[in-house]
Design brief:
The structure holds 2 protein chains of 2 kinds. By secondary structure, chain A is mainly α. Helix content of chain A is about 75%, strand content about 0%. Classes of the chains: A mainly alpha, B alpha/beta.
Amino acid sequence: MTESGRPLRAARLRFTGVFWRHRWAKALLLLAPPLLAFVLVYLAALAALFISSFWSVNPFTSEMTHVWNLDNYRQLWQGGAYHTIAYRTIGIAAAVTAADAILAFPLGYFMARIAGGRSRAFVFVAVLLPLWSSYLIRVYIWRLILDNDGVLNWTLRKVGLPAANIGYTNWAVWLIFTYIWLPFMILPVYGALERVPDSLLEASRDLGAGGWMTFRRVMLPLALPGLVAGSIFTFSLTLGDYITPLLAGGTSSQFIGNVVYDNINQGLTPFAAAFAAVPLAVMGAYLLIARRLGAFEAL
Amino acid sequence: MRKHTRRYVLLAAFTAALCVPASGVSAGRGLPASIGKGEGKLNLIAWEGYTQGQWVKPFQKKTGCIVHAKYAGSSDEMVTLMRQGGGSQYDGVSASGDASLRLIYGRDVQKVNPKLIPSFKDFIPALKAPPHNTIKGVHYGISLQWGPNTLLWNTKKVKPAPKSWSIIYSKKYKGKITIPDNPIQIADAALYLSKKKPSLKIKDPYELTQTQFNATISLLKRQKPLIKKYWALASDEIGLFKSHDAVVGASWPYQTNTLKADKVPVKDKIPREGATGWADTWMMSAHAKHPNCMYKWMQWVSTPKVQAEQAIYFGETPANTKACAIMNKLSKGSAQLYHCGASKKYFNSIKFWKTPIATCANGKNNCMDYTKWQQAWTQLKG
């Protein structure tokens, strides 16, 4: 192939040769559009919000004064209620994660190791079906169940037990979150358990380990990355949520998200941004720990 | 030096030209003398129930202005929405008295000419130029309707019928009480304290000194264990009463109407201490894209028939005195029920919502402004 008679092809080969010699250029071209969207839309917005947390605003006229100060963070640190709200949010997020882990593991185990083809598909659909309905509908349904006149109290009264008045309390919030995020925990656990090779379990049996020891020493450590991956979902989604506490919570059910929402509504964006930095920091720490525990190995 | 002088002169002229629109609280233009042709569209921010088909459909037919309404749940939400998108996303807002001043001083709304509203002359005198929408004789909106924040109770579960606000502060119905999740509720507690503890000398529940404010907040803190839930949406309170999670609480006539329509045995009243209330104004955005349609809308909702229809639907009181007769025609006894044509004395007994500011009526600067109310409310809920 001579280059003299076909200059266009030569130019094209030179052009593609750049990407062949420098692999990073090819990767950059492929990733540029989604990366640009991510950086411009998500990271830039996050940065703008974070920067505004160091400014102040005139609430009467909603005009932001670009004077650098730490007033918002000082207000966060000094206000006792904000500490309570942050601890409550993190505490319920942890409780939801624990409850979901305990509930998801047996179901994931059943789906991965016991269920045959048809029943596995059936359980899969059953787990995913609630996700097809609106989030709000699921919250309202649980609110009706846990109401004073709801199904739960009605059933307890019929059986002769006292009514469990958990409607509009933090118990209701915990329960509803556990229900809503459960599919997000089941699927990674299922994925992790499915990858456990039978040969390992057989080998464990051959070496004399009983059922419980096999589970504790072989199955659980291999399933841990799946549990951690699922916990990232449940923890972060609960940490940022404000709708369930607003609709189904009681008088002391404020989450970080509720305070952020109220402050944005009142035009106090800098303070909202300061408080929003808290779950961001918590999630950052959580992700570092999760990586240490191997949650991202499957990637 | 000489070749740069022209550049500087142009720059100075340009800067001077920029200063012209910034002068004045409103957009600086003169008031229109007449309403032009409709633009075919109208974007409104409204309370739920303010843009029902009953009166929107005839308006659309008559003027060709198609109405798109965005419902807001609180005054804070209305202020935020009006400021979105450079202020041109919505043409008008049905602002209550605790949002209207913020919108005026924030330059989010523009002057309006009441002479263009034929029904304006029939308005209650107190609502023609009230302090929450008229500043130094300049009108920033047209009054719409007004209503009280009532005491609502379940007649089967609460006996005897309450006469005072004290019922929501007493242990008798512990865990069955509900009040709005709104910082402006502090004014209701202050109003109750102004009658219960005259030594605090609370004259205006929206102008509280530190001492008066602290006393009010501690009353609310004592009330908190008695409350089942602070309702954020009207539908929340309706749900609470339907499921008997709450049997008494602070409410709006809208909830009473809706619950009664669903056969829940409730009743409401204004207790002997009086009540806070809200007076709504239709205000036009300073950057409205459809000003003619907005003027046509303000004309339409001020007419006696529409005022009566809206008053009956929502359970509020019209600003137009001619609406009372029509109310009784549409629903017998409704004019009396909603205090249409009520005496000046009754009107003055309602403490209408207004944004608390640091300057008190006596000129001192030691009253609590709204930011402190908002922070105190968040701290109270905890």
